[in-house]
Amino acid sequence: MRRAPFGRTSDVAGRGEPVVRDGPLGPLGWTGRTGRTDDTVELPRTLDDWEGPATSVAPVIELRDLTRSFAGDPPVQALRRADLVVHAGDYVSVIGPSGSGKSTLLHILGLLDRPTSGDYLLDGLPTRDLAERDRAALRGGRIGFVFQSFHLLPHRSVLDNVLLATLYSGVPRGERRDRARAALERVGMGHRLDFLPPVLSGGERQRVAVARAVIASPHVLLADEPTGNLDSVTTAGVLDLFDELHADGLTLVVITHDATVSARARRCVRITDGVLREVA
């Protein structure tokens, strides 16, 4: 049985070899309930209650008739009966203008918010009714985040910024420094370990942010307008890096308003007024 890079569950090199995905909560080779969220199924409220889907190749992300509404007069529906499936190894862009529901979708996918109705399954696990501590554990161990504004600590070194991500992601203490160095080497920043973020270029800062996001071998990388603060040349370099990470087996979901960024993905989903539609 092979271990795939970045926790892929799909067959390795098309040889039909099963791949097990490990995270801080354990391997995902569950058997048992299917996790369907119709009226006949009682959803788990903690990870200990969850017996798992009948197959270990559940989609990484699955939205089922998901709606997110906010109180108001009238109420605002930021997401409207959304359905979306992202499989291991996918590279998906979600494109839409400001106010279309992109940020709300990102918050749902990143387990930073809960849907009003419908369900979000992460690796086959229904997440809507999970306890907050379990959602936090899933978020820290299985989801990597890259943001437009980098969110690096200015007075800590590049290496320290990446190491900080291991404190809540389940990376064993003895592996943290080696994995941080390896992640920085992977994104081309191994020569800047002791530098402080303010002396780096925008593209270099985003590469550090990517290293921080992938150090725990997440099952999916969520990127929110990752090139929004970068010029066109630097943008191309970051998108090349995303292509390389995808080729290594990483599952990516990129939220953007930029058609150039969206075009680099293998699949494109357009969001308009909270409605998701796959673009052929």
Summarize this entry quickly.
The chain has 280 residues and is of the alpha/beta class.
Which terms summarize this structure?
single chain, alpha/beta, Rossmann fold, 6-stranded mixed β-sheet, 7 helices, 10 strands, about 25% helix, globular, disordered N terminus
Chart the SSEs and their pairings:
Layout: E1 61-70, E2 76-86, E3 91-95, H1 102-109, E4 117-122, E5 125-126, H2 132-142, E6 143-147, H3 158-164, H4 176-186, H5 202-214, E7 220-224, H6 232-247, E8 252-256, H7 259-263, E9 267-272, E10 275-279
Parallel strand pairs: 3-8, 3-9, 6-7, 7-8
Antiparallel strand pairs: 1-2, 1-4, 4-5, 9-10
Helix pairs in contact: 3-5, 4-5, 5-6
Q: So what's the CATH class?
A: Alpha Beta
CATH-assigned fold name: Rossmann fold
Question: What's the arrangement of strands in the largest beta sheet?
Answer: 6-7-8-3-9-10
* Annotated CATH homologous superfamily: P-loop containing nucleotide triphosphate hydrolases
The major beta sheet can be summarized as: 6 strands, mixed
Number of beta strands: 10
Number of domains: 1
Relative helix content:
25-40%
Which architecture name does CATH use?
A: 3-Layer(aba) Sandwich
What would you call the shape? globular
How large is the share of residues in beta strands? 15-25%
Between the first and last Cα atoms, what is the distance in angstroms? 35 Å
Q: Sketch the topology as an H/E string, one letter per element.
A: EEEHEEHEHHHEHEHEE
Average pLDDT for all residues: 83
List low-confidence stretches: 1-43
The count of helical stretches stands at: 7
Gyration radius, to the nearest Å?
18 Å
